[in-house]
Design goal:
This protein is 53% helix and 19% strand. The chain is an alpha+beta fold. It has two domains: 206 residues, no CATH class; 179 residues, no CATH class.
């Protein structure tokens, strides 16, 4: 055992000494590792931020973490497909520790008709004071006035739909929708204000009014809603609370945002796979630089390797010494690269990246005019592990070449 530790200490010392023997080559190798790792982590943070922004926008755009609806509403959003939830049940939902907000709504598909033009819309009847800070429905008006309460009979439209309707704040518009008996129901609303969303297309999809005027238009009774959106304290609590909610509402359709927005989930999974592939590509590229540096180091030390081999260092210890040399280079460069990447993400990019000049294009995929990078600790660990494992395995070839040096031949030639 003592001999083993003695051999390890010698090999450890030789590996460190060989790293600093050619300082310029070591510096260039470390710089390539640092830049490769840091840039990869920064790009991963930006990609994660974009994905999280799409998820947050989906949740904020009236989906919530969990939604309770009539069992057929998802496939047939008819006004007749409502659920009955009294105030006692709503209070029970709010009393659940994981629940942050309970948002009952009436939702209808309708046509907005101004004096000049018309446009399709999803009209939401809501409790504006409850929606505040939790959903798009609680947005404060950017122009005009916000909705004042459940009895407010005015309507708030998206900023982008006003040019389509050729209308203005203060003008009256008419809502046309299916009535309670299957006929056409209509009601006039005065535009009280406009809101802005991160994604401009969202402004053309939703309009908001107080829940009671819409209930009266559709002839719904108190306690009848088309959906109840639930916001949790943390997204990770979804799977734990879903079974409890399904027990409370056995005859309703209780779904998480993942099942309501499968496209967003698919995009997130696709991104995860893409990032892993990108990590591997960068790590392999960086590893080639390390392999090249080791090959140059071995060619410079042919006589030295031959001497230590002649003095009794076996091929196994030569391989270990070469691998340790690569491991130290990759680990130190990878660690510094990760620290540099974290510094850039948490420092220089903490306020986000403005993409206002590309707002029209980014809004198509659900991204606003500013991207907030998101650092995942798992990404940093994955990059560091892949770098040390793949890079060290790649350096087995230079290590094998070092063992092929024959002392009798090398000492004559070099």
């Amino acid at each position: 055992m003592k001999t083993l530790f003695s051999s390890l200490s010698i090999v450890f010392f030789l590996a460190l000494r060989n790293i600093f023997r050619n300082k310029r080559r070591t510096f260039v190798t470390l710089l390539s590792v640092i830049l490769g790792v840091s840039s990869t982590l920064i790009l991963a943070g930006i990609a994660r931020g974009m994905a999280q922004q799409i998820i947050d926008d989906s949740i904020y755009s009236l989906v919530g973490h969990i939604k309770i609806q009539h069992i057929r509403f998802h496939h047939d959003p008819s006004i007749a497909h409502t659920i009955y939830v009294d105030e006692h049940q709503l209070s029970s939902l709010r009393a659940i520790p994981e629940v942050k907000a309970v948002l009952p709504r009436i939702r209808i598909h309708a046509v907005l008709q101004s004096e000049r033009d018309a446009a399709p819309i999803t009209l939401i009847g809501e409790y504006p004071e409850r929606e505040r800070d939790f959903s798009l429905g609680g947005s404060l008006a950017t122009r005009g006035n916000s909705l004042e309460g459940a009895q407010d009979s005015k309507i708030m439209l998206g900023e982008s739909i006003l040019p389509t309707l050729k209308s203005e704040i203060g003008k009256r518009i008419v809502i046309l929708t299916q009535g309670a008996k299957g006929d056409i129901a209509s009601k006039g609303f005065r535009i009280t204000g406009t809101y802005q969303a991160e994604v401009r297309n969202t402004e053309k999809q939703f309009a908001f009014t107080g829940i009671e005027p819409l209930r009266e238009l559709l002839e719904l009774s108190q306690g009848q809603y088309h959906e109840i959106s639930i916001i949790l304290e943390d997204e990770s609590m979804i799977e734990g609370i879903l079974p409890h909610l399904r027990q409370l509402f056995p005859n309703a359709d209780v779904r998480s945002w993942e099942t309501l927005e499968p496209l967003v989930v698919s995009m997130s999974k696709l991104q995860n796979g893409f990032l892993i592939i990108w990590f591997v590509i960068v790590v392999i590229t960086v590893s080639f630089g390390t392999i090249n540096a080791l090959l140059m180091s071995i060619f410079e030390r042919v006589r030295e390797i031959a001497i230590v081999n002649a003095l009794g260092m076996t091929s196994r210890w030569i391989i270990i010494e070469t691998i340790l040399q690569a491991f130290f280079l990759l680990l130190s460069g990878g660690t510094v690269g990760i620290l540099l990447g974290i510094t850039v993400l948490e420092g220089f990019l903490s306020e986000g990246i403005s993409v206002k000049q590309f707002a029209e294009g980014t809004s198509i995929v659900g991204i606003g005019d500013r991207i907030l990078p998101l650092l995942h600790t798992s990404d940093a660990l994955t990059i560091l592990i892949l770098l040390t494992v793949i890079g060290t395995l790649g350096c087995l070839y230079p290590a094998w070449l070092a063992t092929r040096i024959k002392p009798s031949v090398a000492l004559k030639k070099f």
